[in-house]
Amino acid sequence: MSSIERVKLNAETAKQAIQELKSELHSLNSEYNNIVAKELRAENARLLVAVEEARARLVELETKNGIQQIPVPNQSQSVGATAKVATTIQASKEEISKPKEAEKPTKEAKAKKEKKPKEPPTEEPPVDVGRLDLRIAKVEDVQKHPDADSLYVLKINCGEDKPRTVCSGLVKHVPIEDLRDRVVLLLCNLKPVKMRGITSEAMVMCASSEQGVEVLLPPSGCTPGEPVHCDGYTRKPDPVMNPKKKIFETVAPDLHTDASLRACYKGVPLVVPEKGPILAKTLANVPVK
Fold first, then answer.
1. Cα 234 from Cα 19, distance rounded (Å)
2. Exposed, middle or buried by CB within 10 Å (0-12, 13-18, 19+), for 227?
3. Residue 259 CA to its chain's centroid (Å)
């Protein structure tokens, strides 16, 4: 077979193969179009069902809102009526949800309101020892702070429903045995503060100097919760002293023991009425804090 004859044969074979491919492609296109058409018909059927459900729901809402049902002769009119129903329902909802305007006050009410006298501002009481909530209290339990070697954690009864938790830096100054079941002077209206993870709700008052630290001694016969007074100063403690006002910081420099070991404010002893003064054990003329 010559070269020309082989070329002609190959061309004929290729032409036949192309024709077969075209035929197969046409068949595939027809099958694909049939599948797509089937899916579209199914989707249209679902949409028709959804439209019918929506129409039924609109009719139900229309009926509930007191709108009379009017039968429509064809689809286009039905669509128009449905749109009208939807518009009416939306308007009804907006009317219902619209807040009513507040009634305007009458002239008499305005005049009465204007004539109401202003209350005078509350007068700030003087910053002195009367602002401190000093009470007699009793230590019910004492433990070492789990995360601070210099702190005790005490449970102290100060006359309330439950004991207060107090963190105190007395580890280096007072043996733990000396604090158990001890009656103390407690400052109860400091703002609670966390000390190494434990909230401290008060402060044990002590005489303090370079010679040492001593827990103050209330007079015998005192019970937890009894208030401590200072003659000449009205006892009116803040519920909780505002740290920004620095009330305790202002009062503290005038708290000290005198030559007779009595705890004093500006030289006036701190006392439990009818029972006696608060004392230090040995430290005279030193700060109390």
1. 116
2. middle
3. 51
Q: Which residues contact 113 (CB under 8 A, 6 or more apart)?
A: 105
Distance between CA atoms of 154 and 167, rounded to whole angstroms? 6
Residues with Cβ within 8 Å of 142's Cβ and at least 6 positions away in sequence, in order, are 152, 153, 154, 155, 176, 179, 180
pLDDT tens for each residue of 233-259:
999 999 999 999 999 999 999 999 999
Distance CA 166, CA 194 (A): 10
Query: Encoding tokens for residue 225?
Result: 């919760």
Half-sphere exposure of 229 (CA within 13 A, CB side): 11
Amino acid in position 56: A
- pTM score, two decimals? 0.58
Q: What b/e sequence results for 34-72 when a residue is b if at least 16 CB atoms lie within 10 Å of its CB, and e otherwise?
A: eeeeeeeeeeeeeeeeeeeeeeeebeebbeeeeeeeeee
Q: In 3D, which of 162, 142, 163, 161 has the Cα closest to residue 152?
A: 142
Residue ranges of the chain whose pLDDT lies below 50: 76, 78
Paired sense of beta strands 164-168 and 183-187, if any? unpaired
CB count in 10 Å sphere of residue 239: 7
